[in-house]
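Q: Given only this backbone (866 positions), what sequence would you predict?
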């Protein structure tokens, strides 16, 4: 966790000396930056810091930060309603300066970097001055921190080194640039801390890279954020429509997404952003949009439908399937996108009220569906429910093959809009979180402090993309941001280049279409056949446990009773044993101390109440049984040490002391059973036609050079094969890994032998289609292939053999050995209750297939199936 990384760094680096720290959190938008700030602020409060100066490039971010830190009514408020640190209530106060800061509060001063620079170098009444920082220690928090590196980025020969040298810094004119101003504050007190946060630091600049080479405490760029599945995918929709028609197209997509959310019972209100080039154009288009929606008609929707492609085509297809007429769609659009639900924001029309609306677009009671903007939302504004951005102009600013500043800012805006809106399409015990900036890794509070309101848990499934491997799933549109642009190939090329540089798209990915052969769809296996798989089941972990555990029953527990003796010795005399020479020992069973004593001792432990014990030992029927049965406490061995006269006359108090000491040792060793998962040994049939189907998915090249490459187009001559001619392979082609392709060539090499023995031979690739679950712990696995063999047995019966096969690179065999162990056990341990009048079924698993040493695999195939 990022805040814990800071805690560890701070504790390890600064123990016993005054800290002086400048650190950079390089974190993708949406990865938990604001939560990290909140956690660190409270942690540093515990370390004695009271004054926090927050500064950023944009006034919009200031307003958003006020919501996060001060507006207790906001859904994005970071903290508990009452903050308690070390048993003391702590107040967060917004201040203009630190001259009269509260020594018991968190004093929070918010500034734009421009305002801070101006105030410090042109002092004014009640403003922040350099004198504020001379005698107090301050935590400086720079958001969108890439903006403060003006001097470093310029590469000025005397400026950059000076930033880290107090003597030279004093000689510099602080009015020169923002960076010098920040560094003067930072260096004003040796205990000051400077924490920088940004998603877009320019490490390609050599001066920037050098400055931060030892200051990056956490690096989680947008590329990694996207690879981990925590961002939306990006779809660029080009059209030669007029801007207003592109806007209506986006509105249709937005309604489509809203209905998809309703279908899975998720309250999703998609938002559209319409981006103009100038303030004047923004207002003009806003007015045009309002009038267009008022007078929108079915003919316009029909015209857009007739030219629909990609996501817009999917939308109209969905409306038809749900019997939503264009007339009904029209009424919905006119209601949802009426003027009251439109938000116009730019430098001339922004207000505190509009800022509040912008920062709460995810809230259920915020009904705004469209935002009209120019540039002021390029930074510091990010919402989870932005799904469509419409570019209303068609200009380029690239020069000499270099992507222009406008396109780069548009790419950054898309990156902000790509924050993933968590949802689940299946029943889960999850609760909705607050709309705070959610983290891919939930951020914990420092121990001993009550931090911000702890987010309610979301499952990993809900917070990540689910359909990278199933691009045809309609719900894919709920994890896709659509960027609507004019048809301009050169611009799109430049935009894709900028998006790839930010990391929000994978320029190396390719889309694979895996299609079943029409001829295979006519076979008996496809139309009537079955494929068998088990399911994951839950069970009580200790359901078969009938005693307290052999490790406890066979152990001997020593207990020493105090003798009450006082031993006096000289300070400098040689150390001697403190045990009295007459200490003896005696063996007991716990039952020897009496049932009532045992019950009294048990009552002292919450973990030994019957309700708790029954969760651990499902077969335990009562506390009486726990006390009196030799399978539990009765016969546990105890050795008591004490004076002989005490051992001969143990009091009830002594007995209670002994039993309590023994139970104190035993209680932590009781293994809580609870609920576990395992793979059922019952394999049930599914119809082949319901499991194996056409499949569209994305593959990122570079991990495996063959992944995503057609067998007809591979450059490896040993793998090249036109599978459309192979009637035993169910799909038209294979786009799998090198090992998968070698496995196919192996099956081809033994096909004739298989044909001699079997009437039917079919190999199907099982990519994201059928899971089976390990018997031991229920871990899921998807064997890459299923081989189906069928032959005629006695009389009119047929033997049907299903074989799971998993090609595996040699470097993966050890790590995945559990899969091989499980699959090899299937034939002996699985049972199939399903048979038909004429069919018998068997299910097998094979050892891994690895091309470089396939002899074992070949021997098993030959011994059992050839």
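A: Predicted residues:
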């Amino acid at each position: 966790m990022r805040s814990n990384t800071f805690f560890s760094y701070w504790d390890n680096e600064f123990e016993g000396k005054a800290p002086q720290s400048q650190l950079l959190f390089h974190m993708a938008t949406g990865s938990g930056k604001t939560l990290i700030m909140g956690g660190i602020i409270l942690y540093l409060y515990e370390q004695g810091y009271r004054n926090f100066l927050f500064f950023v490039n944009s006034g919009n971010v200031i307003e958003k930060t006020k919501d996060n830190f001060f507006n207790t009514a906001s859904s994005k408020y970071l903290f508990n309603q009452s903050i308690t640190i070390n048993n003391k209530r702590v107040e967060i106060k917004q201040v203009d300066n630190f001259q009269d800061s509260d020594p018991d509060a968190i004093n929070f001063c918010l500034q734009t970097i421009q305002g801070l620079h101006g105030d410090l170098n042109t002092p004014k009444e009640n403003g922040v001055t350099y004198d504020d920082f001379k005698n107090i220690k301050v935590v400086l928090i720079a958001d969108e921190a890439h903006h403060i590196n003006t001097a470093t980025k310029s590469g000025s020969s005397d400026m950059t080194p000076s930033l880290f040298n107090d003597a030279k810094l004093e000689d510099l004119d602080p009015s020169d640039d923002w960076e010098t101003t920040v560094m003067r504050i930072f260096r004003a007190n040796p205990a000051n801390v400077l924490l920088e946060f940004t998603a877009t630091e320019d490490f390609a600049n050599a001066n920037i890279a050098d400055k931060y080479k030892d200051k990056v405490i956490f690096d989680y760029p947008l590329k990694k954020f996207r690879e981990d599945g925590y961002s939306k995918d990006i779809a660029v929709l080009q059209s030669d429509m007029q801007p207003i028609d592109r806007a209506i197209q986006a509105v249709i997509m937005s309604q489509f997404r809203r209905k998809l959310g309703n279908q899975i019972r998720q309250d999703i209100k998609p938002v559209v952003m319409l981006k103009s080039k100038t303030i004047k154009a923004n207002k003009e288009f806003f007015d045009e949009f309002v009038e267009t929606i008022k007078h929108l008609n079915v003919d316009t929707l029909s015209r857009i439908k007739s030219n629909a492609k990609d996501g817009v085509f999917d939308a109209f297809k969905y409306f038809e399937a749900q019997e939503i007429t264009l007339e009904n769609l029209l009424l919905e659009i006119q209601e949802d996108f009426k003027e009251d639900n439109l938000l116009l924001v730019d430098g001339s029309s922004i207000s505190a009220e509009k800022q509040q609306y912008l920062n709460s677009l995810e809230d259920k009671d915020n009904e705004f569906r469209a935002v009209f903007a120019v540039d002021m939302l390029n930074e510091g504004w990010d919402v989870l429910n932005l799904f469509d951005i419409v570019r209303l102009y068609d200009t380029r600013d690239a020069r000499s093959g270099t992507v222009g500043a406008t396109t780069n800012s548009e790419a950054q805006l898309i990156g902000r809009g790509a924050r993933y809106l968590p949802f689940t399409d299946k029943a889960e015990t999850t609760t909705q979180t607050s709309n705070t900036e959610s983290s891919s890794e939930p951020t914990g509070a420092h121990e001993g402090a009550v931090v911000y309101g702890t987010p309610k848990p979301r499952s990993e499934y809900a917070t990540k993309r689910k359909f990278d491997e199933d691009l045809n799933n309609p719900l894919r549109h709920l994890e896709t941001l659509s960027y609507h642009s004019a048809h301009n190939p050169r611009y799109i090329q430049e935009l894709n280049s900028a998006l790839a540089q930010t990391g929000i798209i994978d320029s190396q990915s390719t889309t694979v279409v895996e299609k079943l052969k029409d001829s295979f769809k006519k076979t008996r296996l496809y139309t009537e056949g079955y494929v068998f798989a088990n399911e994951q089941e839950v069970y009580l972990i200790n359901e078969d446990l009938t005693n307290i555990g052999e490790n406890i029953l066979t152990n001997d527990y020593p207990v020493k009773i105090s003798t009450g003796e006082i031993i006096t010795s000289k300070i400098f005399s040689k150390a001697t044993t403190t045990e009295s020479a007459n200490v003896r020992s005696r063996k007991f069973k716990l039952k020897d101390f009496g049932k009532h004593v045992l019950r009294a001792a048990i009552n002292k432990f919450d973990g030994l109440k019957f309700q708790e014990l029954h969760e651990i030992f499902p077969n335990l029927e009562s506390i009486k049984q726990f006390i009196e049965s030799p399978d539990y406490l009765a016969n546990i061995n105890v050795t008591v040490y004490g004076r002989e006269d005490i051992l001969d006359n143990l009091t009830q108090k002594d007995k209670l002391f002994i039993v309590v000491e023994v139970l104190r040792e035993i209680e932590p060793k009781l293994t809580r059973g609870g609920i576990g998962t395992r793979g059922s040994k019952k394999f049930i049939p599914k119809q082949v036609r319901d499991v194996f189907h056409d499949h569209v998915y994305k593959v990122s090249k570079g991990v495996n050079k063959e992944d995503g490459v057609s067998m007809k187009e591979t450059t490896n001559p040993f793998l090249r094969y036109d599978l459309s001619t192979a009637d035993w392979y169910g799909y038209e082609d294979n786009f799998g890994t090198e090992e998968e392709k070698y496995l196919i060539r192996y099956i081809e090499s033994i096909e004739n032998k298989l044909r001699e023995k079997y009437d039917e031979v079919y190999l199907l690739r099982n990519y994201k289609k059928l899971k089976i679950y390990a018997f031991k712990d229920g871990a899921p696995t998807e064997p890459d292939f299923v081989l189906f063999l069928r032959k005629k047995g006695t009389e009119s019966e047929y033997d049907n053999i299903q074989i799971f096969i998993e090609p595996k690179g040699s470097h993966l065999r050890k790590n995945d050995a559990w899969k091989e162990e499980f699959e090899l056990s299937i034939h002996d341990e699985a049972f199939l209750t399903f048979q038909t009048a004429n069919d018998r079924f068997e299910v097998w698993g094979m050892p891994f297939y690895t091309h470089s040493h396939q002899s074992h695999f070949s021997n098993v195939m030959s011994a059992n199936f050839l």
